[in-house]
Specification:
Blueprint (H helix, E strand, L loop, with lengths): L9 H9 L8 H21 L9 E5 L5 E3 H17 L2 E6 L6 E2 L3 H4 L3 E9 L10 E9 L20 E9 L3 E6 L4 E7 L4 E9 L7 E3 L10 H12 L9 E2 L5 H11 L2 E4 L12 H14 L3 E3 L20 E4 L1 H13 L7
Parallel strand pairs: 3-5, 11-12, 11-13
Antiparallel strand pairs: 1-2, 3-4, 5-6, 6-7, 7-8, 8-9, 9-10, 13-15, 14-15
Helix pairs in contact: 1-2, 2-3, 5-8
The structure holds 6-O-phosphono-alpha-D-fructofuranose.
C-alpha cells in the first residue's frame, strides 16, 4: 500500500518555528509567507517565460549598469508589491533600484522589518533556460516604528539578519531559508500550489569535491586564488583525484548545488574589481547566513566573516568565499600563504 503523501507546508513550519521565539507576534512568519506567495507568482512566469512575451531585455538598466531582463522587472515588482501589502515591511532595498524604497502608507509605517533582495539573480541566464533565483535578507528596523524607514535600517551587519533565504527556479522551484534555527528547504508542489518541506536542517558536507569560480578571470585573480585553483586541479586528499570545477554563473544555482553536495564558491577581488562583483546586502549576507546555519563558512577570503562586515553603501560589493568549512579554510590558507599586491 503506497504511503499517503502528507506534505508539511511552508506555513506550517514557519508557525512551528515561531513558537521558538516567545515574543514573536507572527509578523516574521507572515512576512515569510508573503515572500512565498510572491515566489509562486514569479515561478509561474519564469516557467512559462519561453511561451509569453516576457523574455529578453526590458530596455532599461539597473544601478549596476546591467541590462534589465523583463523578468527582472516583473520579479522586482512582485516582491515589492508583496512586501508593501504585508503591512509588516516599512522599506526595501533591491538590486534593481538605485535607492531604498520607503513604504510611507499608514500600515507600512508601523512595519517592523526591512527587506533587501535580489529579485532575479542570474537573470542573464533566463534566455538559455539556466536556473535563476531570488535572494532575500530580512532585518528588524532600527528607526522608531511609526516613522519612515531610512538608510540606517539597511546598514546593519549580516549578524543582525532576522531571516534570509533564496528561491531557486530550476528543474523544481525550491525555497531555502533560515531564521537562525538552521537552514531548511521546501520544494514547490505545483499540484497543490504549496512549498512543501523537503530538506529539514540542511547540513553542507564539511568537505567537498567541487570548486566554483569563473576561471575566465584567472589572470586577474589574487595569487592565493590562483594557487588554490591549481591545488584543486592537482589532487584531492581522499581519492588523489582532482576536484571538479562546476560554475554556472548563477549564484543561487552554484550555491545551492554546493550546499547540498559540498563545495566552495569563490568570487574574489580582481584587478578590475578590487571588491569583487557580488553585493553584500542582498547576495553575500543572505548566502552567508544560510551557509553558516548549514555548518559552512562565508568569508571575504582574508579571514573576515561576511556577516561581520559593517555595510557602508547600499550596493556595496565584497569578495565571497563560501561553502564547505574545510574548503573555505584551505582557500583562506592559500590567501594567507600567497599574499600579493596584484589588486591594490
Ligand atoms: P560572472 C549573476 O549576474 C551574478 O550576479 C551571480 O548570480 C553570479 O554568481 C555572478 O554574477 C556571475 O558573474 O562574472 O562570473 O559572469
Amino acid at each position: 500500500m503506497p504511503t499517503k503523501y502528507q506534505p508539511i507546508t511552508l506555513n506550517e513550519v514557519i508557525i512551528q518555528e515561531q513558537s521558538a521565539f516567545p515574543y514573536a507576534k507572527g509578523e516574521l512568519s507572515r512576512l515569510l509567507s508573503h515572500i512565498g506567495i510572491a515566489a509562486k507568482i514569479v515561478h509561474r512566469e519564469v516557467n512559462k517565460a519561453g511561451l509569453v512575451d516576457i523574455l529578453g531585455a526590458a530596455g532599461s538598466t539597473n544601478i549596476q549598469g546591467e541590462g534589465q531582463q523583463k523578468l527582472d522587472v516583473f520579479a522586482n515588482e512582485q516582491f515589492i508589491a508583496a512586501m508593501k501589502s504585508s503591512g509588516i515591511v516599512c522599506g526595501i532595498a533591491s538590486e534593481e533600484d538605485d535607492e531604498i524604497v520607503i513604504f510611507d502608507d499608514e500600515l507600512s509605517l508601523d512595519g517592523k522589518y526591512v527587506v533587501c533582495f535580489d529579485p532575479l539573480d542570474g537573470s542573464s541566464n533566463i534566455d538559455v533556460n539556466v536556473s535563476v533565483g531570488t535572494i532575500f535578507s530580512i532585518y528588524r528596523r532600527i528607526t522608531p516604528v511609526g516613522l519612515k524607514a531610512d538608510i540606517s535600517d539597511f546598514m546593519q551587519e549580516g549578524t543582525k539578519q532576522a531571516a534570509a533565504g533564496y528561491i531557486i527556479y530550476g528543474s523544481s522551484t525550491m525555497m531555502v531559508y533560515t531564521t537562525g534555527l538552521g537552514t531548511t528547504g521546501f520544494t514547490l508542489d505545483p499540484s497543490i500550489g504549496e512549498f512543501c518541506l523537503s530538506n529539514k536542517f540542511m547540513k553542507t558536507p564539511e568537505n567537498g569535491k567541487l570548486y566554483s569560480i569563473n576561471e575566465g578571470n584567472y589572470i586577474k585573480f589574487p595569487m592565493g586564488v590562483k594557487k588554490y585553483i591549481k591545488y584543486c586541479q592537482e589532487h584531492d586528499p581522499d581519492t588523489n583525484r582532482p576536484y571538479s570545477s562546476r560554475y554556472i554563473g548563477s549564484l543561487v544555482a552554484d550555491f545551492h548545488r554546493n550546499l547540498l553536495k559540498g563545495g566552495i564558491f569563490i568570487y574574489p577581488r580582481t584587478n578590475g574589481n578590487p571588491n569583487g562583483k557580488l553585493r553584500l546586502l542582498y547576495e553575500c549576507n543572505p548566502v552567508a547566513f544560510l551557509a553558516e546555519q548549514a555548518g559552512g563558512l562565508a568569508t571575504d577570503g582574508n579571514g573576515t566573516r561576511i556577516l561581520e562586515i559593517q555595510p557602508t553603501s547600499l550596493h556595496q560589493r565584497v569578495p565571497l568565499f563560501t561553502g564547505s568549512r574545510k574548503m573555505v579554510e584551505k582557500a583562506e590558507e592559500f590567501m594567507r600563504t600567497f599574499p600579493d599586491e596584484c589588486c591594490e
